[in-house]
Amino acid sequence: MSRHSSSLALALALVASPAAASAGVVRITSSIDRVTVFTSAASIHRTARARVPRGEHQLVFAGLPAGLSDESVRVGGFGPGAVAEAVTIRTGTLGELNEPELNRATAELAALQHRRAAAVEALGAHPTPEATRLRDELDASLAAATQRVAQLRAAASVPAKFVTVEVTTEREGDLDLSVEYLVPGAASWQPSCAARLTPDGAHVALDVLAAVQQNTQEDWVDVRMSVSTVMPTTSLTLPHLAERTIELEPEEEEVVFQRVARARPMAGTPAMAADERVDDSVARPGRAQAREPVREREGLVQSNLLSARLEIPTTVTVRAGAAPRRVLAARATLATTLEHLTAPRESNAVFLVARARNAQQFPLLPGNVALFIGGDYVGTTALAGVPVEEEFSLPFGVDSGVTVDRTLADRRVARVAGRDEVTTRYDYRLSNHRDRPVDVVVLDHLPVSRSQGLTVQTTPATRSFSPRREGDAPGVVRWNHHLAPAASERWALGVIVRSPPRRTVNGELD
């Protein structure tokens, strides 16, 4: 027999008042089939089926999270000539749901207490083994029943939402309903990545992982899940600029303006340290590839005007209040350019760095990245947010096959033309001990003056500076080197700091 159904038109106003009781009230059993997790909220989709006769009905989705946003509730469905009249939302308690179960558990507890009292009385002065065993069994059952009653009584006062859908049906039949709602602040996901550099250094396989946790008062069991980079809010307000006025002070008042130099931040390069070493097989042609791990299903990426949504390829279970559940959200293989990076002012460590472009359809959010070369774990780094099509760099450990030295060769203090002058010279040596050529970026930084009359100048360098990159701090200089196998390069840098006579200069000059 075919069943003719019509879609419910449910663009309804939400009324936050209790629904009137009637003979047509049906509390339906629903289940969660789909969840979208945002950075600080979750959108939950529930489905239900109810057999209803012809007429008017009030179908209740009961025991929903108390923190759901009433404005976000959307109801839909199909049914036998069904017409949705209204949607009502009210706040109650979980006690409305478990009252019958609490009554049964309380009655069972009373019966167990009565049986145990009778068993203890029957023990007498000389209890038999059988009577003792019965008493022990009753004690165990009594403890479990007491705990169950306590749990039900505690849950009875927990607030919950009840969504009532008022529907009129033209004939008897099955009515399929769905409700979707947003629970702000009760769920979140944190991104992290695993980056695996191929042994030849040509590509990096980037797995985007989502650590999902929630405390929405309901378990998500075998649900379809997606994670989204959007941050929904229940209050959106466009900026509004008010009138801005200026006026002169009265002429009899004298106003004195003093020019103040704007402070400039001191240049600096973050200290770099690591105790991992690069495997000799990196970028060495002809070496055997690492065995591939067990393959995982890849997610689907959907982008819109404001965000990206990552569809988890398998169903997921996340319990309310449980530890975060980490799932694979997306996977990409990106072409890389290898280089070495060092800042000998801070450390003599020379890092192997893979530079890549975010060719995915969504930005990479800030998070930790576990780093691998082939199948070997080399460490963890923090990744800042990376927009689509932007370049980013990942450090894959310290390469002991490339060394750098920076030494203070000369330091002189003199008074020249009525000004104090400090001249410092540094010698650099960069060596490639590998049997293949390497590209190395050497960083240093010059002091940046924050005071008028305090100047910084470099002497004619034995090697010119390379172009700065976007994001370099003020004063940072770089040299780009291409070293042949077993090759070395030397160069020097001189810095002159001039200041007014007998003035103390704060900050690092060397």
The share of residues in extended strands comes to over 45%
Largest sheet: 9 strands, mixed
The averaged pLDDT comes out at 81
Rg measurement, Å: 35 Å
First CA to last CA: what distance? 90 Å
Query: What's the domain count?
Result: 4
**What series of H and E elements makes up the topology?**
EEEEEEEEHHEEEEEEEEEEEEEEEEEEE
Give the structure's gist in a few sentences:
Helix content is 11%, strand content 45%.
Can you characterise this structure?
This protein has helices at residues 95-123, 129-156; strands spanning 6-7, 14-15, 25-28, 30-37, 41-52, 55-65, 74-79, 83-93, 159-169, 173-184, 187-197, 203-214, 220-228, 300-303, 308-311, 316-318, 325-342, 351-357, 367-373, 376-383, 391-398, 402-416, 419-432, 438-445, 455-458, 476-483, 488-499. It has four domains: 6-94 and 158-184; 96-156; 187-230 and 264-340 and 351-390, no CATH class; 402-499, Immunoglobulin-like (Sandwich). The strands form four sheets. Strands 1, 4, 5, 7, 10, 13, 14, 15 and 16 form a nine-stranded mixed β-sheet that branches. Strands 11, 12, 17, 18, 19, 20, 21, 24 and 26 form a nine-stranded mixed β-sheet that branches. Strands 2-8-9-6-3 form a five-stranded mixed β-sheet. The chain is elongated and about 105 Å long. It has two helices and 27 strands. Helix 1 packs antiparallel against helix 2. It has 510 residues and is mainly beta. The termini are far apart.
